[in-house]
């Protein structure tokens, strides 16, 4: 199973065990994205500030603003799918979540920060596994369906459901 290296920085509140949340997100995805079950895989998850994500977003994506989550895949999907289970550890990629943006979005959606962060971790892990919602409407629908199923396993409501507002 995918092994996570988790770093939690201020301003993420200590009221939630963010490491447990990230591990639960991986568990929820295993039967939906079985490629993440390869025991050789590692990934890092950084819970950090908007300021840090802003720097990363500007440096690596050329976007001069913070965003909720950044995904930095290290393996192409074909390479991931063909990766033997025996061998040295292999870095799947890195995720970085921006606390203030995540908190603002959670408040705007009327959901708990932990639930929104779980969604973004699931979303980011799917990107690391080679899923990309920006390639086509069909790819977006497929990725959203995986997210909805994984979040349901965590007891989190469909983040894409129309709430009538």
Automatic annotation (TrEMBL):
It comes from the Bacteria. Single strand-specific metallo-endoribonuclease involved in late-stage 70S ribosome quality control and in maturation of the 3' terminus of the 16S rRNA. It comes from Novosphingobium piscinae. Belongs to the endoribonuclease YbeY family. The lineage of its organism: Bacteria, Pseudomonadati, Pseudomonadota, Alphaproteobacteria, Sphingomonadales. Its EC number is 3.1.-.-. This is Endoribonuclease YbeY. Its main location: cytoplasm. Its cofactor is Zn(2+).
